């Protein structure tokens, strides 16, 4: 599964805005704007590196225990295994 650039940019933008809002009272707007940029890059990079692993991990769990088809009741056998 591939991570799209829009997702990475959105995560970075959210981290940047939250950092900006949190730091404005201490250092002012312009300083907070520049101080939050490295954290935004770090958050976007971490998302880009880790999200494919998370998606693969979640897909493995889905393969082991698939959801019931629409209109089908879950079997008692699956409940007994738990």
Note the topology.
Blueprint: H1 5-27, H2 29-64, H3 76-81
Describe this structure in words.
79% of the residues lie in helices and 0% in strands. The protein is elongated and about 60 Å long. The protein is built from 3 helices and no strands. With 82 residues, it is an all-alpha fold. The longest helix has 36 residues, at 29-64. α1 packs antiparallel against α2.
Number of strands: 0
The ordered string of helix (H) and strand (E) elements is HHH
What structural category characterises the helix and strand content?
Answer: mainly alpha
Average residue pLDDT:
85
Largest sheet: none
Estimate percent helicity: over 70%
Distance between the termini: 29 Å
Beta strand %: under 5%
Inertia-based shape: elongated
Number of helices: 3
Oligomeric state of the chains in view: single chain
Low-confidence stretches: none
Radius of gyration: 21 Å
């Amino acid at each position: 599964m591939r991570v799209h650039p829009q997702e990475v940019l959105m995560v970075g933008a959210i981290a940047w805005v939250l950092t900006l809002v949190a730091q404005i009272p201490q250092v002012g707007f312009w300083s907070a704007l520049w101080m939050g940029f490295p954290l935004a890059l770090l958050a976007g990079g971490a998302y880009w590196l880790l999200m494919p692993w998370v998606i693969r991990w979640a897909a493995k769990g889905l393969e082991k225990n698939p959801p019931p088809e629409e209109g089908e009741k879950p079997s008692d056998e699956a409940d007994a295994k738990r």
